[in-house]
Protein backbone atom coordinates (compact mmCIF):
# COMPACT_ATOMS: atom_id res chain seq x y z
CA UNK A 1 0.00 0.00 0.00
CA UNK A 2 1.06 3.56 -0.54
CA UNK A 3 -0.28 5.32 2.54
CA UNK A 4 0.88 8.92 2.64
CA UNK A 5 2.34 9.13 -0.85
CA UNK A 6 0.86 9.32 -4.35
CA UNK A 7 0.07 5.91 -5.84
CA UNK A 8 2.18 6.66 -8.93
CA UNK A 9 5.41 6.67 -6.91
CA UNK A 10 6.96 3.24 -6.96
CA UNK A 11 10.39 2.95 -5.42
CA UNK A 12 11.13 -0.39 -7.12
CA UNK A 13 10.23 0.71 -10.66
CA UNK A 14 13.03 0.57 -13.24
CA UNK A 15 12.28 1.87 -16.74
CA UNK A 16 13.05 -0.41 -19.65
CA UNK A 17 13.37 0.32 -23.36
CA UNK A 18 10.31 -0.33 -25.55
CA UNK A 19 9.84 -3.69 -27.22
CA UNK A 20 11.06 -4.13 -30.77
CA UNK A 21 8.44 -2.75 -33.12
CA UNK A 22 7.38 -0.02 -30.70
CA UNK A 23 8.33 3.45 -31.80
CA UNK A 24 7.18 7.03 -31.24
CA UNK A 25 4.11 8.36 -32.96
CA UNK A 26 4.64 10.92 -35.71
CA UNK A 27 3.16 13.82 -33.71
CA UNK A 28 4.48 16.48 -36.09
CA UNK A 29 3.42 14.73 -39.30
CA UNK A 30 6.97 14.43 -40.62
CA UNK A 31 6.13 11.29 -42.62
CA UNK A 32 2.41 11.95 -43.11
CA UNK A 33 2.67 12.32 -46.89
CA UNK A 34 4.32 8.93 -47.39
CA UNK A 35 1.91 7.32 -44.93
CA UNK A 36 -1.06 8.80 -46.81
CA UNK A 37 0.24 7.47 -50.13
CA UNK A 38 0.67 4.01 -48.61
CA UNK A 39 -2.80 4.02 -47.06
CA UNK A 40 -4.34 5.16 -50.37
CA UNK A 41 -2.56 2.34 -52.16
CA UNK A 42 -3.91 -0.18 -49.65
CA UNK A 43 -7.43 1.15 -50.12
CA UNK A 44 -7.12 0.99 -53.90
CA UNK A 45 -5.87 -2.61 -53.76
CA UNK A 46 -8.44 -3.94 -51.25
CA UNK A 47 -5.80 -4.05 -48.46
CA UNK A 48 -3.41 -6.19 -50.52
CA UNK A 49 0.00 -4.87 -49.49
CA UNK A 50 2.04 -6.49 -52.29
CA UNK A 51 1.44 -3.74 -54.88
CA UNK A 52 2.18 -1.13 -52.19
CA UNK A 53 5.46 -2.64 -51.04
CA UNK A 54 7.59 0.21 -52.41
CA UNK A 55 5.44 2.76 -50.56
CA UNK A 56 5.78 0.80 -47.34
CA UNK A 57 9.55 0.88 -47.75
CA UNK A 58 9.47 4.63 -48.42
CA UNK A 59 7.45 5.14 -45.25
CA UNK A 60 9.83 3.09 -43.12
CA UNK A 61 12.79 4.91 -44.66
CA UNK A 62 11.20 8.26 -43.79
CA UNK A 63 10.67 7.14 -40.19
CA UNK A 64 14.27 5.98 -39.90
CA UNK A 65 15.64 9.20 -41.42
CA UNK A 66 13.54 11.38 -39.08
CA UNK A 67 14.51 9.40 -35.98
CA UNK A 68 10.99 8.05 -35.42
CA UNK A 69 12.28 4.50 -35.37
CA UNK A 70 15.64 2.83 -34.96
CA UNK A 71 17.60 2.36 -38.17
CA UNK A 72 17.72 -1.27 -39.19
CA UNK A 73 18.76 -3.35 -42.17
CA UNK A 74 16.09 -3.83 -44.83
CA UNK A 75 16.35 -7.61 -44.58
CA UNK A 76 15.32 -7.35 -40.91
CA UNK A 77 12.25 -5.35 -41.96
CA UNK A 78 11.11 -7.93 -44.52
CA UNK A 79 12.74 -6.42 -47.61
CA UNK A 80 15.16 -9.14 -48.70
CA UNK A 81 17.53 -8.59 -51.59
CA UNK A 82 16.58 -4.95 -52.03
CA UNK A 83 19.01 -2.07 -51.72
CA UNK A 84 18.05 1.06 -49.80
CA UNK A 85 17.65 3.17 -52.96
CA UNK A 86 15.34 0.76 -54.74
CA UNK A 87 12.23 1.95 -52.91
CA UNK A 88 11.92 5.00 -55.14
CA UNK A 89 12.76 3.08 -58.31
CA UNK A 90 10.09 1.72 -60.62
CA UNK A 91 8.60 -1.21 -58.69
CA UNK A 92 7.04 -2.78 -61.80
CA UNK A 93 10.34 -3.07 -63.66
CA UNK A 94 11.73 -6.61 -63.75
CA UNK A 95 15.00 -7.14 -61.93
CA UNK A 96 17.11 -8.25 -64.89
CA UNK A 97 20.57 -7.16 -65.94
CA UNK A 98 20.29 -6.12 -69.58
CA UNK A 99 23.87 -4.82 -69.70
CA UNK A 100 25.24 -8.34 -70.33
CA UNK A 101 23.00 -9.03 -73.35
CA UNK A 102 24.35 -6.35 -75.78
CA UNK A 103 27.93 -7.60 -75.38
CA UNK A 104 26.93 -11.09 -76.57
CA UNK A 105 25.25 -9.76 -79.72
CA UNK A 106 28.07 -7.35 -80.62
CA UNK A 107 30.35 -10.11 -82.07
Automatic annotation (TrEMBL):
Residues 31-65 form the CHCH domain. InterPro entries: CHCH, COX19, Cys_alpha_HP_mot_SF. GO terms for biological process: mitochondrial respiratory chain complex IV assembly. SUPFAM superfamilies: Cysteine alpha-hairpin motif. Pfam families: CHCH. Residues 84-107 have a biased composition (Low complexity). Its main location: cytoplasm. Keywords: Cytoplasm, Disulfide bond. It is found in: Cytoplasm. It comes from the Eukaryota. Residues 1-25, 83-107 are annotated as: Disordered. One of its GO terms (cellular component) is mitochondrial intermembrane space. PANTHER family: CYTOCHROME C OXIDASE ASSEMBLY PROTEIN COX19. Required for the assembly of mitochondrial cytochrome c oxidase. Belongs to the COX19 family. This is Cytochrome c oxidase assembly protein COX19.
Amino acid sequence: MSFGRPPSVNLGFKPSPPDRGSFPLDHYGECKDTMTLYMSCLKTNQNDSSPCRHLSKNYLDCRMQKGLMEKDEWKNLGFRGEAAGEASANPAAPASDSSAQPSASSK
